[in-house]
Specification:
Length: 434
């Protein structure tokens, strides 16, 4: 095994230059608002974690389907469980002081942190989740994954992202149309602790996660018996180096440990759960991505001289007019892209990846459009409508999970052999076809 190596000094210098610029920008933003710099830095850290661990929500479905190996799926389930425990403590403390879920906030000045993620489970949630599930398979990544992949130099994400952004507008408009209709009112907006209490909710949620964990393990065993199982493969230079020498701070081995060695899915999930709770504690809201995409789309349209007057977009237009660089979500999303780039630059592995066929651009664009439309139709993506919703004990999150999973599986079945994407077990190596 390689125990020595050469640091890519050019990429290291670029990474350090970007880090300095981020520090300066964060300081300048903090002069406007103390939270703006925090949003940017938080995004950088989240992007770094996503790339260093190759962590992604879409992979929780795609990887196990293609390889039969469920380490990412299991890491996601454990991440949900850990986040739930922390969220329960934060929300219980708020409830003890008289706070209520945001959808009942008219009766109280105190709002439970993260309860904005408690949405109605209705036809919009189900259809939106299904469309999003299809889109994330076609595009090769989810919402956060599209941003981190873009930072890694994946050109397919650069193709998917503009369509993702633009198609949030029809999705958002249709969601409001359905919400005002009779069919949109058929559903339930349930904050589970209202029904089962916090202890009961945690027990039920853990039981559901355990069921999914058992299903994952059983499916792995089935694929092994069928002979269609592939272990996760790390690139040689991503593996830990042997500890057979005295520790030296200024050495390739130390640099490798700090910046090159790949993190496991489990470590990535644990660090992301910490990041999620940090966002909740510092903002009172959960981590989300796609509501900001709608603001980008509105800003683009207004920049072209087209005025949006629909009441459904009133609050979004207000935020856009206040300046996108004054929007915390925009800064955090930009930070994710930058954090992912810094991760690969420090590892000396950044490169632009054009490894796809021309016809694949249609699938990537279509995937972005499906994700944009579906995310806003459902009121969120893999973060807002799934991770944040389930972690904030909203019934809608479980409905979205089912719909997203079905959409992902349907896309994998329909487009098998037609989509050229990055292999789920490797990073930036020869392509595979789904």
């Amino acid at each position: 095994m390689q125990t020595t190596g050469k640091i890519n000094k050019n990429q290291l210098i670029i990474a350090l230059f970007i880090i300095i610029l981020i520090a300066i920008l964060g300081k300048l933003l903090s002069g406007t608002s103390s939270k703006l710099g925090l949003y940017l830095i938080t995004g950088v850290v989240l992007g770094y974690i996503l790339t260093r661990s190759r962590f992604g929500f879409a992979g929780g479905i795609k990887r196990i389907y293609v390889t039969g190996e469920g380490s990412l799926t299991k890491a996601l389930l454990i991440m949900f469980a850990v986040t739930m425990v922390a969220s329960a403590g934060i929300q219980w403390a708020a409830v003890a002081k008289g706070a209520v879920p945001q959808f009942r906030a008219a009766t109280s000045d105190l709002v439970i942190p993260g309860s904005a993620s408690v949405q109605i489970l209705n036809i919009s949630t189900i259809l939106g989740g299904f469309f999003f599930g299809v889109g994330m398979i076609l595009a090769g990544g989810c919402a956060s994954g599209t941003l981190s992949d873009l930072g890694e130099g994946e050109i397919r994400s650069a193709i998917a992202l503009p369509f993702f952004v633009l198609f949030t507008i029809p999705g958002h408009a249709l969601r409001h149309t359905i919400a005002d209709s009779a069919i949109g009112k058929i559903g339930a907006q349930v904050y589970l602790p209202d029904v089962f209490g916090f202890i009961g909710t945690l027990i039920i949620s853990f039981a559901l996660l355990l069921v999914l964990y058992v299903i994952t393990r059983k499916y792995e065993d089935l694929r092994k018996k069928e002979g269609f199982y592939e272990e996760t493969v790390f690139e040689p230079n991503e593996l830990p180096l042997p500890e057979d020498e005295d520790f030296k701070l200024f050495s390739y081995k130390t640099y490798h440990k700090f910046f090159i060695e790949r993190w496991s899915f489990f470590k990535g999930g644990m660090l992301l759960s910490i990041g999620f709770i940090f966002v909740l504690n510092t903002t009172g809201k959960n981590w989300g991505v796609t509501s900001t995409f709608t603001k980008w789309a509105v800003g683009l349209i207004q920049g072209l001289g087209i005025e949006i007057t629909s009441p459904a977009f009133a609050s979004i237009v207000k935020d856009v007019n206040a300046g996108l660089l004054n929007d915390g979500g925009t800064l955090r999303n930009i930070g994710i892209v930058i954090g992912a780039a810094i991760c690969l630059l420090l590892a000396g592995k950044f490169r632009f990846n054009f490894d796809f066929r021309l016809k694949d651009t249609i699938f990537y664009a279509l995937g972005g459009a499906f994700m944009g439309f579906g995310s806003r139709l459902a009121g969120g993506c893999n973060l807002g409508a799934l991770y944040s919703a389930i972690s904030s004990f909203s019934l809608s999150g479980w409905g979205f999970l089912i719909a997203l999973s079905l959409g992902g599986i349907v896309a994998l079945k329909l487009f098998e052999g037609k989509i050229n994407i990055i292999p789920p077990n490797r990073h930036k190596k020869a392509s595979t076809t789904l």
